[in-house]
Protein backbone atom coordinates (compact mmCIF):
# COMPACT_ATOMS: atom_id res chain seq x y z
CA UNK A 1 0.00 0.00 0.00
CA UNK A 2 1.06 3.58 -0.76
CA UNK A 3 0.18 6.21 1.83
CA UNK A 4 -0.07 9.82 0.61
CA UNK A 5 0.09 12.42 3.38
CA UNK A 6 -1.70 15.62 2.36
CA UNK A 7 -4.66 16.16 0.07
CA UNK A 8 -3.51 19.27 -1.76
CA UNK A 9 -2.39 19.65 -5.36
CA UNK A 10 0.77 17.51 -5.19
CA UNK A 11 -0.83 14.88 -2.95
CA UNK A 12 -3.93 14.39 -5.09
CA UNK A 13 -1.84 14.17 -8.25
CA UNK A 14 0.54 11.63 -6.65
CA UNK A 15 -2.40 9.53 -5.40
CA UNK A 16 -4.12 9.55 -8.81
CA UNK A 17 -1.00 8.53 -10.74
CA UNK A 18 -0.02 5.86 -8.20
CA UNK A 19 -3.54 4.41 -8.40
CA UNK A 20 -3.50 4.51 -12.20
CA UNK A 21 -0.31 2.47 -11.99
CA UNK A 22 -2.11 -0.24 -10.06
CA UNK A 23 -1.15 0.60 -6.48
CA UNK A 24 -3.55 0.46 -3.57
CA UNK A 25 -3.53 4.06 -2.30
CA UNK A 26 -4.62 5.69 0.96
CA UNK A 27 -4.81 9.51 1.00
CA UNK A 28 -4.72 11.22 4.40
CA UNK A 29 -5.92 14.81 4.87
CA UNK A 30 -6.27 16.50 8.25
CA UNK A 31 -8.85 19.01 6.97
CA UNK A 32 -12.54 18.27 6.48
CA UNK A 33 -12.10 18.42 2.69
CA UNK A 34 -9.43 18.07 0.01
CA UNK A 35 -7.74 20.93 -1.80
CA UNK A 36 -8.32 23.73 0.70
CA UNK A 37 -5.38 25.74 -0.59
CA UNK A 38 -6.30 25.10 -4.23
CA UNK A 39 -9.67 26.61 -3.42
CA UNK A 40 -8.17 30.03 -2.64
CA UNK A 41 -5.47 30.13 -5.34
CA UNK A 42 -5.82 32.71 -8.09
CA UNK A 43 -8.34 34.62 -5.94
CA UNK A 44 -10.65 31.61 -6.03
CA UNK A 45 -10.18 31.00 -9.75
CA UNK A 46 -7.17 28.63 -9.53
CA UNK A 47 -4.29 29.52 -11.83
CA UNK A 48 -3.69 25.85 -12.77
CA UNK A 49 -0.43 26.37 -14.67
CA UNK A 50 1.32 28.65 -17.14
CA UNK A 51 1.36 27.96 -20.87
CA UNK A 52 4.81 29.49 -21.44
CA UNK A 53 7.51 27.53 -23.26
CA UNK A 54 9.85 25.30 -21.28
CA UNK A 55 12.60 27.92 -21.13
CA UNK A 56 10.21 30.40 -19.49
CA UNK A 57 8.89 27.71 -17.18
CA UNK A 58 12.38 27.16 -15.80
CA UNK A 59 13.18 30.91 -15.77
CA UNK A 60 10.27 31.53 -13.40
CA UNK A 61 11.53 29.01 -10.84
CA UNK A 62 13.43 30.93 -8.15
CA UNK A 63 14.99 28.11 -6.09
CA UNK A 64 16.66 24.91 -7.36
CA UNK A 65 15.32 25.05 -10.93
CA UNK A 66 17.82 22.43 -12.19
CA UNK A 67 16.37 19.89 -9.76
CA UNK A 68 13.05 20.12 -11.64
CA UNK A 69 14.46 18.98 -15.00
CA UNK A 70 13.09 15.43 -14.75
CA UNK A 71 9.82 16.52 -13.16
CA UNK A 72 9.02 19.23 -15.72
CA UNK A 73 10.00 17.13 -18.72
CA UNK A 74 8.17 14.13 -17.25
CA UNK A 75 4.94 16.07 -16.85
CA UNK A 76 4.98 19.54 -18.36
CA UNK A 77 2.46 22.38 -18.50
CA UNK A 78 0.84 21.15 -21.73
CA UNK A 79 0.35 17.71 -20.16
CA UNK A 80 -1.18 19.42 -17.13
CA UNK A 81 -3.72 21.18 -19.35
CA UNK A 82 -4.51 17.89 -21.14
CA UNK A 83 -4.80 16.06 -17.82
CA UNK A 84 -7.47 18.48 -16.56
CA UNK A 85 -9.31 18.58 -19.89
CA UNK A 86 -9.55 14.77 -19.70
CA UNK A 87 -11.04 15.14 -16.20
CA UNK A 88 -13.69 17.40 -17.70
CA UNK A 89 -12.13 20.67 -16.53
CA UNK A 90 -12.08 22.93 -19.60
CA UNK A 91 -9.35 25.57 -19.51
CA UNK A 92 -8.51 28.97 -20.98
CA UNK A 93 -5.30 31.00 -21.32
CA UNK A 94 -5.22 34.61 -20.13
CA UNK A 95 -2.71 37.47 -19.97
CA UNK A 96 0.79 36.34 -19.06
CA UNK A 97 0.02 32.83 -20.38
CA UNK A 98 -1.79 32.04 -17.12
CA UNK A 99 -4.12 29.04 -17.40
CA UNK A 100 -7.47 29.01 -15.56
CA UNK A 101 -10.52 26.76 -15.59
CA UNK A 102 -12.99 28.04 -18.17
CA UNK A 103 -15.59 28.38 -15.41
CA UNK A 104 -13.30 30.61 -13.27
CA UNK A 105 -14.07 28.27 -10.37
CA UNK A 106 -11.28 26.59 -8.40
CA UNK A 107 -13.92 24.20 -7.05
CA UNK A 108 -14.14 22.64 -10.53
CA UNK A 109 -10.43 21.76 -10.36
CA UNK A 110 -10.86 20.14 -6.93
CA UNK A 111 -14.02 18.30 -8.02
CA UNK A 112 -12.27 16.95 -11.13
CA UNK A 113 -9.44 15.56 -9.01
CA UNK A 114 -11.81 14.21 -6.36
CA UNK A 115 -13.95 12.33 -8.90
CA UNK A 116 -10.85 10.76 -10.42
CA UNK A 117 -9.62 9.66 -6.98
CA UNK A 118 -13.00 8.05 -6.35
CA UNK A 119 -13.08 6.41 -9.78
CA UNK A 120 -9.67 4.85 -9.12
CA UNK A 121 -10.71 3.55 -5.70
CA UNK A 122 -8.30 5.68 -3.68
CA UNK A 123 -9.35 5.48 -0.04
CA UNK A 124 -9.63 9.02 1.31
CA UNK A 125 -9.30 9.69 5.04
CA UNK A 126 -10.48 13.21 5.95
CA UNK A 127 -9.98 14.87 9.33
CA UNK A 128 -7.19 12.38 9.87
CA UNK A 129 -3.82 13.61 11.07
CA UNK A 130 -0.64 11.70 10.33
CA UNK A 131 1.41 12.00 13.52
CA UNK A 132 4.49 10.01 12.62
CA UNK A 133 6.28 8.10 9.88
CA UNK A 134 7.76 4.92 11.32
CA UNK A 135 10.95 3.59 9.76
CA UNK A 136 13.36 0.74 10.43
CA UNK A 137 16.68 -0.04 8.75
CA UNK A 138 16.26 3.04 6.50
CA UNK A 139 12.94 1.74 5.15
CA UNK A 140 9.29 2.67 5.61
CA UNK A 141 7.33 0.43 7.98
CA UNK A 142 4.16 2.28 8.99
CA UNK A 143 2.50 5.59 9.78
CA UNK A 144 0.77 6.66 12.98
CA UNK A 145 -2.55 8.42 12.45
CA UNK A 146 -5.07 10.13 14.70
CA UNK A 147 -8.79 10.49 14.01
CA UNK A 148 -11.42 11.60 16.51
CA UNK A 149 -8.83 11.48 19.29
CA UNK A 150 -7.91 7.84 18.57
CA UNK A 151 -4.38 6.92 17.51
CA UNK A 152 -3.66 4.00 15.22
CA UNK A 153 -0.65 2.45 13.53
CA UNK A 154 -1.13 1.65 9.85
CA UNK A 155 1.42 -0.57 8.09
CA UNK A 156 2.42 0.77 4.68
CA UNK A 157 5.00 -0.02 2.02
CA UNK A 158 5.63 3.55 0.86
CA UNK A 159 4.88 7.11 1.95
CA UNK A 160 4.55 10.21 -0.23
CA UNK A 161 4.76 13.40 1.87
CA UNK A 162 2.72 16.22 0.31
CA UNK A 163 2.00 18.36 3.35
CA UNK A 164 2.74 21.80 1.89
CA UNK A 165 4.66 24.53 3.68
CA UNK A 166 3.77 27.15 6.27
CA UNK A 167 1.86 29.63 4.10
CA UNK A 168 -1.86 30.14 4.72
CA UNK A 169 -1.81 28.04 7.93
CA UNK A 170 -5.63 28.20 8.02
CA UNK A 171 -5.61 25.74 5.10
CA UNK A 172 -3.70 23.19 7.19
CA UNK A 173 -0.16 24.15 6.14
CA UNK A 174 1.47 23.99 9.55
CA UNK A 175 4.86 22.52 8.75
CA UNK A 176 4.12 18.85 9.52
CA UNK A 177 6.24 17.68 6.60
CA UNK A 178 9.31 19.47 7.90
CA UNK A 179 9.00 17.58 11.19
CA UNK A 180 8.67 14.26 9.33
CA UNK A 181 11.76 15.18 7.30
CA UNK A 182 13.87 16.10 10.33
CA UNK A 183 12.80 12.99 12.26
CA UNK A 184 13.84 10.79 9.34
CA UNK A 185 17.26 12.45 9.15
CA UNK A 186 16.69 15.02 6.43
CA UNK A 187 17.93 18.59 6.24
CA UNK A 188 15.33 21.36 6.17
CA UNK A 189 16.73 24.59 4.72
CA UNK A 190 15.95 28.08 6.08
CA UNK A 191 12.20 28.73 5.88
CA UNK A 192 10.67 32.06 4.92
CA UNK A 193 7.41 33.40 3.62
CA UNK A 194 7.49 34.24 -0.11
CA UNK A 195 5.15 35.76 -2.68
CA UNK A 196 4.05 38.05 0.10
CA UNK A 197 3.42 41.83 0.44
CA UNK A 198 5.98 44.28 1.86
CA UNK A 199 5.40 46.28 5.03
CA UNK A 200 6.80 49.77 4.34
CA UNK A 201 8.33 52.21 6.84
CA UNK A 202 7.03 55.40 5.21
CA UNK A 203 3.65 56.52 6.59
CA UNK A 204 2.58 58.22 3.38
CA UNK A 205 1.82 54.89 1.70
CA UNK A 206 -1.44 54.93 3.69
CA UNK A 207 -2.50 58.03 1.74
CA UNK A 208 -2.34 55.93 -1.43
CA UNK A 209 -4.21 52.93 0.00
CA UNK A 210 -6.19 51.16 -2.71
CA UNK A 211 -4.24 52.77 -5.57
CA UNK A 212 -3.23 50.24 -8.23
CA UNK A 213 -0.43 51.15 -10.65
CA UNK A 214 -0.05 49.26 -13.90
CA UNK A 215 3.08 49.01 -16.01
CA UNK A 216 5.47 50.39 -13.41
CA UNK A 217 9.03 49.24 -12.86
CA UNK A 218 10.24 48.05 -9.47
CA UNK A 219 13.89 47.87 -8.46
CA UNK A 220 14.81 46.29 -5.14
CA UNK A 221 18.15 46.78 -3.39
CA UNK A 222 19.69 44.89 -0.48
CA UNK A 223 22.14 47.47 0.77
CA UNK A 224 23.72 48.76 -2.44
CA UNK A 225 23.17 45.55 -4.40
CA UNK A 226 20.28 45.38 -6.85
CA UNK A 227 18.55 42.03 -6.30
CA UNK A 228 15.40 42.43 -8.39
CA UNK A 229 14.11 44.49 -11.31
CA UNK A 230 10.93 43.99 -13.32
CA UNK A 231 7.80 45.58 -14.76
CA UNK A 232 4.23 44.91 -13.73
CA UNK A 233 1.32 45.84 -11.55
CA UNK A 234 1.45 46.90 -7.90
CA UNK A 235 -0.98 48.03 -5.23
CA UNK A 236 -0.64 50.40 -2.27
CA UNK A 237 -2.21 49.15 0.97
CA UNK A 238 -2.70 50.46 4.51
CA UNK A 239 0.57 48.79 5.55
CA UNK A 240 2.72 49.03 2.43
CA UNK A 241 2.70 47.54 -1.05
CA UNK A 242 1.38 44.41 -2.73
CA UNK A 243 0.33 43.22 -6.20
CA UNK A 244 1.97 40.74 -8.62
CA UNK A 245 5.15 42.79 -9.12
CA UNK A 246 5.78 43.11 -5.38
CA UNK A 247 4.90 39.49 -4.61
CA UNK A 248 7.47 38.30 -7.16
CA UNK A 249 10.07 40.70 -5.74
CA UNK A 250 9.52 39.25 -2.25
CA UNK A 251 10.91 35.88 -3.37
CA UNK A 252 14.29 37.54 -3.93
CA UNK A 253 14.19 39.56 -0.72
CA UNK A 254 13.49 36.86 1.89
CA UNK A 255 17.12 35.80 2.42
CA UNK A 256 18.25 39.41 3.00
CA UNK A 257 15.58 40.43 5.53
CA UNK A 258 17.20 41.27 8.87
CA UNK A 259 20.66 41.27 7.32
CA UNK A 260 20.57 44.26 4.95
CA UNK A 261 18.46 47.38 4.51
CA UNK A 262 15.91 46.67 1.77
CA UNK A 263 15.00 49.59 -0.49
CA UNK A 264 12.26 49.56 -3.11
CA UNK A 265 12.47 52.06 -5.98
CA UNK A 266 9.44 52.56 -8.19
CA UNK A 267 9.63 54.07 -11.65
CA UNK A 268 6.08 55.36 -12.07
CA UNK A 269 6.64 56.25 -15.74
CA UNK A 270 8.99 53.61 -17.20
CA UNK A 271 7.80 54.26 -20.77
CA UNK A 272 9.40 57.74 -20.64
CA UNK A 273 13.04 58.49 -19.95
CA UNK A 274 13.90 61.50 -17.75
CA UNK A 275 14.16 63.90 -20.70
CA UNK A 276 10.84 62.75 -22.16
CA UNK A 277 9.10 63.00 -18.80
CA UNK A 278 10.50 66.50 -18.30
CA UNK A 279 9.21 67.48 -21.75
CA UNK A 280 5.80 66.10 -20.78
CA UNK A 281 5.81 68.23 -17.61
CA UNK A 282 6.79 71.32 -19.61
CA UNK A 283 3.88 70.69 -21.98
CA UNK A 284 1.39 70.12 -19.14
CA UNK A 285 2.61 73.17 -17.23
CA UNK A 286 2.44 75.41 -20.32
CA UNK A 287 -1.29 74.68 -20.59
CA UNK A 288 -1.98 76.04 -17.07
CA UNK A 289 0.73 78.58 -16.21
CA UNK A 290 -1.38 80.53 -13.74
CA UNK A 291 -2.72 77.58 -11.77
CA UNK A 292 -1.20 76.46 -8.48
CA UNK A 293 1.30 73.60 -8.48
CA UNK A 294 -1.14 71.34 -6.60
CA UNK A 295 -3.28 71.29 -9.77
CA UNK A 296 -0.35 70.80 -12.15
CA UNK A 297 -0.05 67.01 -11.99
CA UNK A 298 -3.70 66.13 -12.60
CA UNK A 299 -3.08 64.86 -16.15
CA UNK A 300 0.05 62.92 -15.26
CA UNK A 301 -0.71 61.10 -12.00
CA UNK A 302 -3.59 59.31 -10.24
CA UNK A 303 -5.42 61.58 -7.79
CA UNK A 304 -4.30 59.64 -4.68
CA UNK A 305 -0.64 59.97 -5.60
CA UNK A 306 -0.55 63.73 -6.14
CA UNK A 307 -0.51 64.87 -2.44
CA UNK A 308 2.37 62.47 -1.74
CA UNK A 309 4.47 63.71 -4.67
CA UNK A 310 3.68 67.33 -3.69
CA UNK A 311 4.91 66.66 -0.15
CA UNK A 312 8.05 64.80 -1.22
CA UNK A 313 8.98 67.44 -3.78
CA UNK A 314 9.25 70.14 -1.11
CA UNK A 315 7.61 72.61 -3.51
CA UNK A 316 4.80 74.71 -2.08
CA UNK A 317 1.45 73.36 -3.33
CA UNK A 318 0.26 76.97 -3.76
CA UNK A 319 3.20 78.04 -5.90
CA UNK A 320 2.08 79.29 -9.35
CA UNK A 321 3.10 76.84 -12.06
CA UNK A 322 4.84 79.55 -14.12
CA UNK A 323 7.20 80.12 -11.16
CA UNK A 324 8.40 76.53 -10.97
CA UNK A 325 12.10 76.39 -11.81
CA UNK A 326 13.91 73.94 -14.06
CA UNK A 327 15.61 72.46 -10.96
CA UNK A 328 12.25 71.94 -9.24
CA UNK A 329 10.89 70.29 -12.38
CA UNK A 330 13.89 67.95 -12.47
CA UNK A 331 13.24 67.08 -8.83
CA UNK A 332 9.68 66.04 -9.73
CA UNK A 333 11.01 63.93 -12.62
CA UNK A 334 13.54 62.24 -10.34
CA UNK A 335 10.81 61.49 -7.79
CA UNK A 336 8.54 59.91 -10.37
CA UNK A 337 11.38 57.82 -11.83
CA UNK A 338 12.78 56.83 -8.41
CA UNK A 339 10.01 56.85 -5.79
CA UNK A 340 11.89 55.30 -2.87
CA UNK A 341 10.30 53.18 -0.14
CA UNK A 342 12.01 51.31 2.68
CA UNK A 343 10.94 47.75 3.46
CA UNK A 344 10.39 47.19 7.16
CA UNK A 345 9.59 43.49 6.84
CA UNK A 346 7.74 40.87 4.87
CA UNK A 347 4.13 40.29 5.90
CA UNK A 348 3.35 37.03 7.72
CA UNK A 349 2.75 33.47 6.54
CA UNK A 350 -1.00 34.06 6.72
CA UNK A 351 -0.60 36.42 3.74
CA UNK A 352 2.13 34.48 1.92
CA UNK A 353 1.22 32.43 -1.15
CA UNK A 354 4.11 30.02 -0.67
CA UNK A 355 6.97 29.05 1.65
CA UNK A 356 10.56 29.47 0.54
CA UNK A 357 12.94 26.77 1.79
CA UNK A 358 12.07 23.23 2.80
CA UNK A 359 13.36 19.67 2.54
CA UNK A 360 16.80 19.86 0.94
CA UNK A 361 16.67 18.65 -2.66
CA UNK A 362 20.25 17.37 -2.24
CA UNK A 363 18.69 14.49 -0.29
CA UNK A 364 16.02 13.72 -2.89
CA UNK A 365 16.41 11.75 -6.12
CA UNK A 366 15.35 14.23 -8.83
CA UNK A 367 14.28 11.38 -11.15
CA UNK A 368 11.85 9.78 -8.67
CA UNK A 369 11.26 12.22 -5.76
CA UNK A 370 12.41 9.41 -3.43
CA UNK A 371 14.54 10.21 -0.41
CA UNK A 372 18.17 9.16 -0.72
CA UNK A 373 18.14 8.41 3.02
CA UNK A 374 14.93 6.41 3.54
CA UNK A 375 13.84 3.83 0.99
CA UNK A 376 10.27 4.33 -0.35
CA UNK A 377 9.83 7.73 1.30
CA UNK A 378 8.97 10.48 -1.20
CA UNK A 379 8.58 14.25 -0.87
CA UNK A 380 6.58 16.37 -3.34
CA UNK A 381 5.32 19.93 -3.78
CA UNK A 382 5.82 22.87 -1.47
CA UNK A 383 7.38 20.83 1.36
CA UNK A 384 10.52 20.69 -0.83
CA UNK A 385 13.03 23.53 -1.14
CA UNK A 386 11.45 24.67 -4.42
CA UNK A 387 9.56 27.86 -5.23
CA UNK A 388 8.64 29.98 -8.23
CA UNK A 389 7.09 33.31 -9.15
CA UNK A 390 3.36 33.98 -9.48
CA UNK A 391 1.51 32.95 -12.61
CA UNK A 392 0.77 29.23 -12.15
CA UNK A 393 4.39 28.12 -11.81
CA UNK A 394 4.15 26.90 -8.20
CA UNK A 395 1.14 24.73 -8.99
CA UNK A 396 3.05 23.32 -11.95
CA UNK A 397 5.81 22.30 -9.51
CA UNK A 398 3.14 20.54 -7.43
CA UNK A 399 1.61 18.71 -10.42
CA UNK A 400 5.01 17.71 -11.88
CA UNK A 401 6.59 16.46 -8.65
CA UNK A 402 3.36 14.71 -7.63
CA UNK A 403 3.12 13.02 -11.01
CA UNK A 404 6.76 11.89 -10.84
CA UNK A 405 6.44 10.39 -7.36
CA UNK A 406 3.13 8.73 -8.27
CA UNK A 407 4.61 7.16 -11.38
CA UNK A 408 7.85 6.03 -9.70
CA UNK A 409 6.62 4.90 -6.28
CA UNK A 410 7.31 1.27 -5.40
CA UNK A 411 5.67 -0.99 -2.86
Task: Summarize the topology.
Elements: E1 2-5, H1 9-20, E2 25-28, H2 36-40, E3 49-50, H3 54-59, E4 61-63, H4 69-74, H5 77-86, E5 91-93, E6 98-101, H6 106-119, E7 123-125, E8 129-136, E9 139-147, E10 150-155, E11 158-161, H7 176-183, E12 192-194, E13 198-200, E14 212-222, E15 225-236, E16 240-242, H8 244-253, E17 262-267, H9 274-286, H10 306-313, H11 326-337, E18 339-346, E19 354-356, E20 377-379, E21 387-388, H12 393-408
Parallel strand pairs: 1-2, 1-11, 2-7, 11-20
Antiparallel strand pairs: 3-6, 4-21, 5-6, 8-9, 9-10, 12-19, 13-16, 13-18, 14-15, 14-17, 15-16, 17-18
Describe the structure.
The chain folds into 2 domains: 2-192 and 353-408, FAD/NAD(P)-binding domain (3-Layer(bba) Sandwich); 197-347, Helicase, Ruva Protein, domain 3, CATH 1.10.8. It is 29% helix and 25% strand. It has 12 helices and 21 strands. It has helices at residues 9-20, 36-40, 54-59, 69-74, 77-86, 106-119, 176-183, 244-253, 274-286, 306-313, 326-337, 393-408; strands at 2-5, 25-28, 49-50, 61-63, 91-93, 98-101, 123-125, 129-136, 139-147, 150-155, 158-161, 192-194, 198-200, 212-222, 225-236, 240-242, 262-267, 339-346, 354-356, 377-379, 387-388. Strands 13-16-15-14-17-18 form a 6-stranded antiparallel barrel. The protein has a 5-stranded parallel β-sheet with strand order 7-2-1-11-20, covered by helices on one side. A 3-stranded antiparallel β-sheet has the order 3-6-5. Helix 1 runs parallel beside helix 6 (106-119), helix 1 runs parallel beside helix 12 and helix 9 packs across helix 11 (326-337). The longest helix has 16 residues, at 393-408. The chain is elongated, with a radius of gyration of 25 Å.
Amino acid sequence: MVSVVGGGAAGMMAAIIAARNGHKVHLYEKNEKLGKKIYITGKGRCNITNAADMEQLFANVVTNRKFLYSAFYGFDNMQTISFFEELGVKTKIERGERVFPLSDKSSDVINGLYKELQRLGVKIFLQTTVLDIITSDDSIKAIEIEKNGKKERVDTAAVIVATGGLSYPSTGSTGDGYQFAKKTGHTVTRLSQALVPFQIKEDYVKQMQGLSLRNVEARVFAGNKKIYENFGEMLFTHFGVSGPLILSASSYVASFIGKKDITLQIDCKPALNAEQLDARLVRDFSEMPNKQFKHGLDKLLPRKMIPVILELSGISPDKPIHSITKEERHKIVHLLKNLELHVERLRGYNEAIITQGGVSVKEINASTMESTKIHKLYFVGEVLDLDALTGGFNLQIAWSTGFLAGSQVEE
